[in-house]
Design brief:
It is built from two helices and nine strands. It is α+β, with helices and mostly antiparallel strands. The protein has a single domain, classed as Inorganic pyrophosphatase (Inorganic Pyrophosphatase), CATH 3.90.80.10. The strands form two sheets. It has a five-stranded mixed barrel. This is Inorganic pyrophosphatase.
Length: about 180
């Protein structure tokens, strides 16, 4: 069985078009994580707070970020996919975040194969309500977990997201490959 983190390329034309490996589903509280040793998606935990993922959430293959994990990506979707689904997506923004003292930024992307998102090219194209919902989710999703502190630190545009993806690819090459 292929390892979706190590065997799948970052994207067909990274950083402009990436692959997002979905772990967590829009509308759910289950926190799934891809376990490269199995390889497969496992239930890591159920979110302690009464919140749910606002969009599908996962990681970018062949990436490694400053928090020593694959680079996180949230894909704006109308309908949830499934854990392990690979979505071709375009990065459009990035949310800056601190998770227990570690930089844990999130790429925001849109599926390339959904015409309902063709008009979203950059941060300014994302509705403010969508940005507020994503921010609120990450600001509160660990509130009931003992000793966990998360701070959202604002938004950056598509250029910053693409630069961060290239940084994550470089770190992957240096530390993992």
């Amino acid at each position: 069985m292929a390892n979706l983190w190590e065997d799948l390329e970052t994207g067909p034309n990274a950083p402009d078009e990436i692959y997002a490996v979905v772990e967590c589903l829009k509308g759910e509280r289950n926190k799934y994580e891809y376990d490269k040793d199995i390889p497969g998606v496992v239930l890591d935990r159920v979110l302690h707070s009464n919140v749910h993922y606002p969009y599908d959430y996962g990681f970018i293959p062949q990436s490694y970020y400053d928090d020593e994990d694959p680079f996180d990506v949230m894909v704006l979707v109308e309908d949830q996919t499934f854990p392990g689904c690979v979505v071709e997506a375009r990065p459009v923004a990035m949310m800056k975040m601190d998770d227990d003292g570690e930089q844990d930024d999130k790429v925001i992307a849109v599926p390339t194969e959904d015409p309902r998102f063709d008009h979203i090219e950059d941060l300014d194209d994302i509705p403010q309500q969508t940005l507020d919902e994503i921010d609120e989710f990450f600001a509160t999703y660990k509130n009931l977990e003992a000793g966990k502190e998360v701070e959202t630190l604002g938004w950056e545009d598509k250029a910053a997201a693409k630069e961060a993806i290239e940084h994550a690819q470089d770190l992957y090459d240096e530390q993992v490959a």
